[in-house]
């Protein structure tokens, strides 16, 4: 009986040893073993408040279905800013997707979201020597992008394309904004600015000059509120005043109808088409 027990223990240790070897040898690409690493230009997706990377999946998959890439990597950012990558860039697939997930997704401080975005970019820079990239945000994810740019406009890898979906740059309905109340000047300047918007005003002078192409997508439920149900069109369109005078290009696209509701926009086929055309241009 004792000999049989020892035999089983020996087999168990052998299996554990083989498993450890297998895990240790699992291939993970980095700049050191990925040819032409500087050619890789990832597109980072940022979800909204209280959400997760799942909200990015349809938009990300639409890019795969359109043939823009075959690679989706996930970046999980802890509340303390530690970034963990799942998956890896693939040889020759130069436009991979990075679905970013913030564990502190109920944090309401937009500057903290910007710091988490920065941590993600730095992780990609350290791992793949990333030099150029794109960003796509939905709802609060747009504030992650904007506050990232506010603090890092010329320090880190070059942002080439910025896509903002359902951005609440100057407030949310029921939280300092009401339907049809916000007024914008022709250049997008709001007559009244909320604190978070005022904090972004330095971007009018620091946003990278003639570097970033911007696509601003917003929804109108067509119910008379001129909003997506959560964010007024005026709040979304106030982005123009912050970046248009320095952006390489700036364009707006309005989605109309029931599927233009705020949380449906990241699963909207029309948004997917605008996104594909913009990133593939």
UniProtKB/TrEMBL annotation:
Q: Which GO terms describe its molecular function?
A: hydrolase activity
Span of the secretion signal? 1-20
Q: Which UniProt keywords apply?
A: Hydrolase, Signal
- The protein here is known as Alpha/beta hydrolase
Name the source organism: Levilactobacillus fuyuanensis
For this protein, the record's InterPro entries field holds: AB_hydrolase_fold (IPR029058), DUF915_hydro-like (IPR010315)
Transmembrane stretches, start-end: none
